[in-house]
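Recap from last week: sequence in, structure out.
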Amino acid sequence: MREVSVLDSTRNGAVVGSRIQVAGSPLARLIGLMARKFLEPGTGLLLRPCSSVHICWPRPLINDINLNSHLRVIAINIALKPWCVGSVRLRTRMALELPAGTVARLCIALGDQLAIEDMAPKAATTLCVTGA
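Predicted structure tokens:
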């Protein structure tokens, strides 16, 4: 899975997560965070497209942030436990799963505007000079 960094533009670009994995395929979204026993600070999972999340199997509590197509926070689920379903919102296009406590620590609120920075290495540009 590719990794991105998620920033809160509303809070002067505060880093929400610097190692957020993007689950874009149906299989990646289905597996989600099931295999993780815990989430380290700065890590998480961005599910896209996604309208709600479900928590299966014992694993750590998470914060779930529902985002619209413009990455605006439209719902927040605090400390989702195993065997729970997050709220379903018609405008939700993505869900951001973070370690429990992240939302409170960063003061993320409804209406906040998030931004995604791609962490893929940029292709090196090489200047080729040939002599005649």
